[in-house]
Every structure is written in C-alpha cells, then in structure tokens.
Design brief:
CATH topology of the largest domain: Double Stranded RNA Binding Domain
Strand order of the largest sheet: 3-2-1-4
Structural class: alpha+beta
Shape: elongated
Number of strands: 4
Distance between the termini: 23 Å
Strand content: 15-25%
Radius of gyration: 17 Å
CATH architecture of the largest domain: 2-Layer Sandwich
C-alpha cells in the first residue's frame, strides 16, 4: 500500500516526515534519506501495534486529498510503499468462485504488474473494502 507522507524541513535543519493516514506516525532525520527510512520504520512499528490489537492497517488516502490540507506551506509530498500483508497473520487457502470476465480483468491487472498475483489483488481489494467499511460503521 502506498502511504502518502508529508515532508517538511524544520528550523533545526532536520527533516520531519508525517504519515497523515496513520495517527501519530512521525519521524525525523538529519538527511532526507534518513528521514524517509525512519518514516518506513515508524510505519512498520505503528502497523505492528495495530495488528497486535487485531486492527487492520489504515487505508491509504489518495495524495490529492492530502494536498488540499498541507501541514506546512512548504510541504513536499511522497509515497512510502508498505506491504501490509505482513500484518495480517498467516495465509490460509480459500476457494472463491468468480465470473470469468472478472477473473480476466484481474489477470490483466496482474499482467500489467499492478498486482503481484490474483491472491494479492483480492487481498488488497478486501483490505480496502473492509477498512472503508470499518471507518464508516463505527
């Protein structure tokens, strides 16, 4: 999942990276590379804590939605790609029956490299649907 990050260089000359979709997920670094790596570690830490509490990883909001409300006037936007499957537990085989046209569309997405496999596509789609449902049905 591509998490949007907001990058800001503060007065102490350190970089601050905020992950708007993950509450309280902030990191810093003396260099941009260090700040981004620290942000990746912070995301993993936060997602691991959520998984321990049996909470799904938050869905990533499109970057365009975040750009409308920057935390600072000189914010730089970027993505950090995180494989959230590591926070879902062991895999379990399941058989699903889908219409042929739907399978063909999924296979096209896999062939284009947008998803790693049918299973990865279906898992990612389920995570998004369940995260949206959970967020709107509290």
């Amino acid at each position: 999942m591509n998490y949007t990050v907001a990058i800001h260089k503060n007065n102490s000359s350190n970089y601050t990276v905020t992950v708007p979709d993950i509450e309280s997920c902030i990191s810093t670094g003396e260099t941009l590379d260090q700040a981004m790596e620290n942000a990746r570690e912070a995301i993993y830490h936060h997602l691991a804590e959520l998984a321990e509490s049996k909470i799904f990883a938050p869905t990533a909001t499109p970057i365009d939605d975040h750009i409308k409300h920057p935390p600072h006037k000189d914010t730089i936007w970027a993505y950090i790609d995180i494989d959230v499957s590591a926070f879902l537990g062991k895999t379990e085989k399941a058989t699903v029956t889908l219409p042929k046209l739907l399978i063909n569309k999924i296979d096209t997405i896999v062939a284009e490299g947008i998803a790693k496999s049918r299973s990865a596509f279906l898992a990612e789609s389920a995570i998004k649907a369940l995260s949206t449902r959970t967020a709107t049905h509290h």
